[in-house]
Structure formats: structure tokens, C-alpha cells
Design brief:
With 78 residues, the protein is an alpha+beta fold. It has one domain. It contains two helices and three strands. The chain has a three-stranded antiparallel beta sheet with strand order 2-1-3, covered by helices on one side. A hairpin with a 5-residue loop joins strand 1 and strand 2. It starts with a strand and ends with a strand. The model has no long low-confidence stretch (mean pLDDT 85).
Length: 78
């Protein structure tokens, strides 16, 4: 398994990062789910019906529109 670092802007706009293990590079949507569970553990399972089926990345869209969180990069940690 490889170690991946997800860099994103947090709620205040400051850069932050989160690491995860996976065989392949996580997609932006997978990374968004990890970030959401890290930043908002209480609402991790929030219903995304407003976005489900209407956008290719509902969790990423929710994070951006409701919290200003944007994924900057997903890179393998050497």
C-alpha cells in the first residue's frame, strides 16, 4: 500500500493536509469524503440529496459550497 497526502484549504482558507493509505491515488471525491470525516465527524453521513446525481463529485461540491474547503493536490508520499 502507498501513502498519499491530500492537501486542501481549510475553512479559514489556510493550507492543511491529511494522509491516507491506498493502493491507488484517491480520486478527488474519495479525498473529499476523507476530509469531510476529518473536519466534520458529526455530519460525516449527511444526506447529499441536493447534489446526488446532479454532480459528478457531490461531497467535493458540498465541501466547497458550504465550507470553502478546496482540494489542492493529492500526491504520493515518498
Amino acid at each position: 500500500m502507498k501513502l498519499w497526502e491530500i492537501t486542501y484549504t481549510d475553512k479559514s482558507g489556510a493550507p492543511a493536509s491529511l494522509q491516507t493509505s491506498a493502493y491507488q491515488q484517491p480520486s478527488h471525491e474519495e479525498a473529499a469524503r476523507l476530509i469531510r470525516s476529518h473536519l466534520f465527524p458529526v455530519i460525516d453521513e449527511v444526506d447529499l440529496n441536493d447534489y446526488q446525481g446532479k454532480t459528478a463529485a457531490p461531497t467535493e461540491t458540498w465541501l466547497d459550497e458550504n465550507s470553502g474547503v478546496k482540494i489542492l493536490s493529492i500526491v504520493e508520499v515518498p
